[in-house]
Amino acid sequence: MAAINTNYKNDIANIEAIEEQLKNIADAGFSHVQWCHDWLGEYVYSHIEMVQIKQMLEKYNFKLKGLHAAEGGVPGLTQDGNLDFGHRFENRKNYTSLNEYNRLAGVELIQNRVDLAHIIEAKEIVLHMQLPYIELREDEDFKKKYWEQAFKTFDELKPYCRTRGVKIAIENLLCTPKQEQMDQFDTLFERYDFDFMGFCFDSGHGSMVCVDDPLFFAKRYKERIIALHLQDTDGIAPELIEDGMAALKHDKHALPFTGIINWDDLAKIVARSQYKLPVTLEVHLKSDTYDQEMFNLKDALGKAQKLDEMVKNYRK
Predict the structure, then answer these.
(1) In order of start, what are the domains of the chain with their CATH numbers?
(2) Alpha carbon separation from 125 to 42, 81, 89, 145 (Å, rounded)
(3) Beta-bridge partners for 169
(4) Is the pTM of this model over 0.85?
């Protein structure tokens, strides 16, 4: 068994492009997918689209390893096209917004993904929570209001998720410094139980925030791991950690065993967690031809299966 992200080569949203990727994933031999289309932005699925997606997934006999939800808009994108993850963003759908209408619209966007997860039988949604960490550092009043809004959102989502059998997995992200993310996860996991909220460990993101120990977040929040975004990178220079554009360029989403991650150590951590196999890749596979694409997908399958076996062996 093995799982991969449905958007392994692009985020083109038309159904033909999506189904092409699903067919290729199936032909390569994957048993599971994580639905990752429309993970960025404010797109809202209609009910009939959800039915269509369910039928496509059933056509290729896929089981689900979660769904990547949308945080809303493009966090950190400035008017000049650069990225600033340290300050707040005020998109029309933003579940931590101080504007109550925007916050509620953000809640509805997440509920839309919970509905899709329920229909396609995914057990969790992966959610970004990009912290405006510079403003949180500098403005105690803003920090108080920010967390009031965040708590209000998750308090509202908790019963909605429970009635649909879907958990929320908060993901470790790029750019936000290690200490701020620790404070974030500690705050959330103290307030919300495991039956509602867990952790999604992104190995590539970990390698570029915790440069001294890429697996730090996986170790610290092992008991909360319910989702995985497994990818490899070559790391990043410490002075570039908070540089948004540099981080994106180094966030390669490469196949496991091709970069700096110690996969044996990560397999041991996952084995000691409550994570339910198979492992889940979140990779970008660039190919110039169909044959090369299929070769890359089968290579990805082999590496995912290897990781799966490593975790199983450490659970014995």
Answers:
(1) 3-74+120-130+167-315 (3.20.20.150)
(2) 16, 29, 22, 25
(3) 126, 198
(4) yes
